[in-house]
Amino acid sequence: MIIAVDGPAASGKGTIARALARHYRLPHLDTGLLYRAVAATVIDLELDPEQEADAVAACAFDEQLLGDERLKDDAIGKAASIVSAHPLVRSALLQRQRRFAQQPDGAVLDGRDIGTVIAPDADAKLFVKATPTIRAQRRHAELRARGSAVSLDKVLADIRARDERDSSRSMAPLRMADDAALLDTSFLSIDAAVQRAIALVEARTAGRSA
Ligand SMILES: Nc1ncnc2c1ncn2[C@@H]1O[C@H](COP(=O)(O)OP(=O)(O)OP(=O)(O)O)[C@@H](O)[C@H]1O
Ligand SMILES: Nc1ccn([C@@H]2O[C@H](COP(=O)(O)O)[C@@H](O)[C@H]2O)c(=O)n1
């Protein structure tokens, strides 16, 4: 079974995707980490994330980076959103994500274009959303817990800018697939959101063989 989980920054899609992977005993890929690894490599090599050729060169990143806590930094998230808008960067990362999705038992992938581009035939697709203010509050709490002194206003402004960039790029913009189920987590606890996600997957896959 392939489960696609998409949505904007800090909507809770990663939390839900990890819980679904545990529940269905499937491998999980956070595809945002790939773009974050490209962004971190661009920064480390003192290249320019706005330049497509620079970003493409960074697609051959060191695999060990994927486990680096530094990838969670907001500055890396912002640079990831810049490099991910380059069509050649998306093409360079495409097959890796499709191969992950096509494992024998299936997989759970979360990102921005899983249901629309990476796995358009996924068995279940969720589009996770929450209001910008609630997403900013969640991300702010997370960053503060990691020692950052960033203000809530700055986090909210960054989230709005990232939404705009991710939704308006020419290739694979952030959008809900026509056949995705919408899950608004704004007023749901993590547990309630996960239970709702499982119910939506069950409803989508009822009657199908595994
Ligand atoms: N329903 C919820 N209620 C409260 N907090 C939540 C909820 N879902 C997720 N969170 C918290 O919000 C933060 C962002 O969640 P998460 O990392 O899952 O979002 P994301 O959409 O995957 O973000 P990103 O796009 O940046 O990877 C985390 O600190 C997480 O614990
Ligand atoms: N499938 C995806 C996943 C991510 N991106 C871009 O990467 C940025 C960081 O992603 P996070 O999920 O870790 O926040 C994000 O803002 C997107 O620009 C993408 O384009 N496609």
Keyphrases for this structure?
210 residues, Cytidylate kinase, EC 2.7.4.25, binds adenosine-5'-triphosphate, binds the ligand Nc1ccn([C@@H]2O[C@H](COP(=O)(O)O)[C@@H](O)[C@H]2O)c(=O)n1, alpha/beta, Rossmann fold, 11% strand, dCMP kinase activity, five-stranded parallel sheet, cytoplasm, globular
Provide structural commentary:
The chain has a five-stranded parallel beta sheet, with helices on both faces. The chain starts with a strand and ends in a 5-residue tail after the last helix. The protein contains nine helices and five strands; from the N terminus they run βαβααααβαβααβα. α1 packs across α9. The chain has a single domain (2-202), classed as P-loop containing nucleotide triphosphate hydrolases (Rossmann fold), CATH 3.40.50. The protein is an alpha/beta fold. Bound molecules: adenosine-5'-triphosphate and the ligand Nc1ccn([C@@H]2O[C@H](COP(=O)(O)O)[C@@H](O)[C@H]2O)c(=O)n1. Ligand L45E5XJ5 binds at residues 9, 31-32, 35-36, 77, 80-81, 84, 111-113, 162, 166. Residues 3-202 form the Cytidylate kinase domain. Belongs to the cytidylate kinase family. Type 1 subfamily. Keywords: ATP-binding, Cytoplasm, Kinase, Nucleotide-binding, Transferase.
What compounds are bound to the protein? adenosine-5'-triphosphate, the ligand Nc1ccn([C@@H]2O[C@H](COP(=O)(O)O)[C@@H](O)[C@H]2O)c(=O)n1
Q: In sequence order, what are the helices and strands, one letter per element?
A: EHEHHHHEHEHHEH
Task: Give the CATH topology.
Answer: Rossmann fold
CATH H-tier superfamily: P-loop containing nucleotide triphosphate hydrolases
